[in-house]
Amino acid sequence: MNEEQRKHVARALGQIPSGGSVLTARHGSRVTGMLASWVQQASFDPPTITVVVKHGRPIQELIDAGGHFILNLIGEDRGRMFKHFSKGFDPDEPAFDGLDSREEPEGVILTECIAYLKCKVTDSVNAGDHKVYVAEILDAISEGQSKPYVHLRANGLRY
């Protein structure tokens, strides 16, 4: 792909809307979280989603080992969650200090988020520099009071 084609691809990919979520996972005593924007419903029956994680992120090891995660959906008032999770966390660094949260066997529920989905990984595939997880939703809570955060990127080839 030449540079001109790459610019067109970047602009077009940026027009695909995405949301904002905090993905959390636990394995044994280790737990962490990260911002996730590449999330999509994949099936009605059973209810299934896909979540994409960049290779090398600490959460990937926990998801692969534990086979579960919790996806916390961020509302329009995204400031606090984005500020807290935007820097990322080292593997054993406390990721939830200062947040109202509840620990679960699959990960952490963030009570400031507008909804959460408890998920069991059913499949995964490597996709370039990321890994796509396919997961069945086992349980969920949605307040339904707030709208989810949605955004477009100016360049679809970077975050």
Q: What features would you describe in this structure?
A:
This protein is α+β, with helices and mostly antiparallel strands and 159 residues long. It has a single domain, classed as Pnp Oxidase, Chain A (Roll), CATH 2.30.110. 18% of the residues lie in helices and 43% in strands. The chain has three helices and eleven strands. It has helices at 3-14, 58-66, 79-85, and strands at residues 18-19, 21-27, 30-36, 39-43, 48-54, 68-73, 101-103, 108-110, 115-127, 130-142, 150-151. The strands form three sheets. A seven-stranded antiparallel β-sheet has the order 3-2-6-9-10-5-4, sandwiched between helices. β9 and β10 (130-142) form a beta hairpin. The radius of gyration is 16 Å and the shape is globular.
Topology:
Layout: H1 3-14, E1 18-19, E2 21-27, E3 30-36, E4 39-43, E5 48-54, H2 58-66, E6 68-73, H3 79-85, E7 101-103, E8 108-110, E9 115-127, E10 130-142, E11 150-151
Antiparallel strand pairs: 1-11, 2-3, 2-6, 4-5, 5-10, 6-9, 7-8, 9-10
Work out the strand percent: 35-45%
Largest sheet: 7 strands, antiparallel
What's the tally of helices?
Answer: 3
The string of secondary-structure elements, in order, is HEEEEEHEHEEEEE
Could you give the order of strands across the largest sheet? Answer: 3-2-6-9-10-5-4
As a whole number of angstroms, the C-alpha radius of gyration is 16 Å
Q: Globular, elongated, flat, extended or rod-shaped: what is the shape?
A: globular
Helices and strands: which structural class?
alpha+beta
Question: What's the CATH architecture?
Answer: Roll
Helical content class: 10-25%
Into how many domains do the coordinates divide? 1
Q: In CATH's first tier, which class applies? A: Mainly Beta
**Mean of all residue-level pLDDT scores:** 95
